[in-house]
Amino acid sequence: MNQSAVVGAGVMGKGIAYAFAISGYEVFVNDVKEEALEKAERDIESLLEKSCDKGFLTKEVYHTALENLHFETDLTKAAKNADVVVEAVLEKIDLKISIFQQLDEICKPEAILATNTSTMSPTEIGAQTSRPDKVVAMHFFNPVHKMKLIEVIRGLDTSDETVDQVRTISNQIQKEMVEVNEFPGFVTSRMNCLIGNEAMNMFMEGVASAEDIDKAMKLGLNHPMGPLELADLVGLDSRLRNMEYLHQTLGEKYRPSPILTKYVKAGRLGKKSGKGFYNYS
User: Fold this and answer.
1) SS3 call for 140
2) pTM above threshold 0.70
C-alpha cells in the first residue's frame, strides 16, 4: 500500500494527512471547499517545517512528505487510486453514508474505506456500500502528530483481512492500535465524554473555575490535558454532536450538560472560534 486519501480538510483531516505523508504514503487531501484545502496546505506545510526544524523529521523525510501531498476538490481524482481512504468529516451519519456511497463507486474493489468517527457505527456505514467487509473505523486522536493511538472498530461484516491490513497501516504510520468491538462511543469516547460532561456540570454549578478543574485532573489524576481545555480543542460543537448521539443510543447519563448546549448556541465553539471555556483571543 502506498497511496492514501483523506476526505475532509479540518483539524483531524490535516493531522491524518500529515501522518501518512511523513510515513512515505502519497496522500490526496479532499474537501468540497477550496479555501479549506488552501488552509490545510498551509497548516500541514507549517507543521512539517516546524517538525524538521526541531529535529523530529530528517530533511529527506520533510522534502518527501511535501512531494507526497496533493490537494483536490474532486473526490474522484482524490480517491480513485487510493489503497486506503480515511473519511474525517463532521459527525453526521447521513453525511458519512453519502461519502461512503460515493467512495464505493469511485475506489478500486480492494481499497479499505475507513471512517475517523469517534462514536458512530461502521456497521451502519458499511451496510450502505457493496463492500462492508472493507469498511472499518480508524479513530485517530487530536493532535494526530502527537497522539500515538488509533482505536480500530470492527463493524459486523468487517473482515479479519481488513483488520490485519489496518494493523499494518497503523504500524507504518507509527501509531499503536487497539481493536474494539462496535458499541456506541467505543472505549475512549464513552469515557472521555462522561468525564468532560461532569467537568462542565461542575463548572456550571460553580464547584470550581475551569482552570482549577483542569489543574485538578492534570496534577491529581495525571491527565495530560484537562477535560475543559480538551473540549475546547476538539470543538464544543463536535463534542455536543457526540454527546447527543451517545445520549440517544446509551441513555440518560450521557445527556449533554446545559452549559455545553448554551455555549454552542452562542457560537462559543472553543479554540477554533476564539472562545469556549477559555478565551483564546
Assistant:
1) strand
2) yes
